[in-house]
Amino acid sequence: MNHSRITTEGFRALATHKLRTFFMMAGTIVGIAALTVIVSMGKGTQREVMKRVNAFGTRLIKINAGGGKGYTKPQANVVTLKMEDAEAIRSTITGWDIVTSVAQKHGIPMKAGSRQCEGDVFAVDPDWHEAMEWPAQVGEGIAAEDMATMAHVCVLGTRLAKALFGDENPVGSDILINNVRYRVKGALSDHPASPGGDDENNRAVIPLTTGLRRTFNQNHLTYIRVRMKNVADVPKTAEQIRQLMHERHHISPPETDDFSIVTAKEVAEAARGISGTLTALLVTLATLGLLVGGVVMMNILLISVGERTKEIGLRRAVGATRRAVLLQFLTESLTVTLIGAILGCALGWGVSILLPRYFKVVTVISWEPFALAVLFAVLVGLVFGVQPARRAARLHPVEALR
Questions:
Q1: Is the pLDDT of residue 270 over 70?
Q2: Is the pTM of this model over 0.85?
Q3: Which residue of 46, 65, 223, 358 has the fewest CB atoms within a 10 Å radius of its CB?
Q4: Which residues contact 103 (CB under 8 A, 6 or more apart)?
Q5: pLDDT value of residue 303
Q6: Is residue 43 within 8 Å of 35, Cβ to Cβ?
């Protein structure tokens, strides 16, 4: 019996029992679909990591109020980060391009006419716009004169401007921030989410002196942002800033830091860590799906061998070799897994396209899942198809025909 005849007989046997064939490939479909989604999410994660790193800035060092390791956010209840710390960094540390200070409050009530909403208030110095690479798109940004006079002026993010003014130009209008009147002098351009996924556009930016002395009534900062001239200097300078802060805050081991330092490295590690946990879970599920599918297929094929004993005996009696019978059953198992792989890829690609529409995940469709699907399909088909194929090939023609 030649190979084309063996393949034809295998396809014919599968087509005769369509429901049985579907159950055999169901596990493969689910496993390969999960694998396809995993690869798509993995590639999406890589893109998101680079996007977040670029949004943070590869030359940036951020000193947050509040301790912690890795990527951390500023802690509002920590009051030890001062303007004097920023001045010490300017005078002691070398190689920096910009050093800017920020104090912020979240969920502050705001009002313009009859429209009301809540937003974030960022008190910044004039260098903030350049450090963030985020100038005013309309009007003007925070200036040195605003700092010197503690002016009640603000610059609005796009989301906040729309909430308070709709499609009107807000520049020149007055708003109330926590019942204090501010004149809108500019509007920022639309900005991507922060490395932590926070909305950056729902904010009002005010002069730092105004925020500390008149609006927040505090003397501490939320964070200090340092932009270096060279990327290569970031790790060394971050450690120098850590030592400087230890000296200024009188911290010595094993005391806990009351500040944290974040660079692009921590941002990337945090993003990879979150996605890594999800990926590990999905890989486990995909592997279990493929194993269960393989076991189910093997058992159904073993049942099939029992039901087709006379058919196998007749073929052996008319000249079919053990090798031909073995190849026929292996062809059936490989066909089932390959078709399951194709259907699984199609299902996985469909899920990968729909996921970003309903959940906060990023996926990238690529060819790699199909290559992996074919590889896994062949492995599952061979590993779990060998036992039924060997049992069929070992049947003695005379005994099988009884």
A1: no
A2: no
A3: 358
A4: 122, 123, 208, 211, 212, 216, 218, 220, 221, 222
A5: 66
A6: no
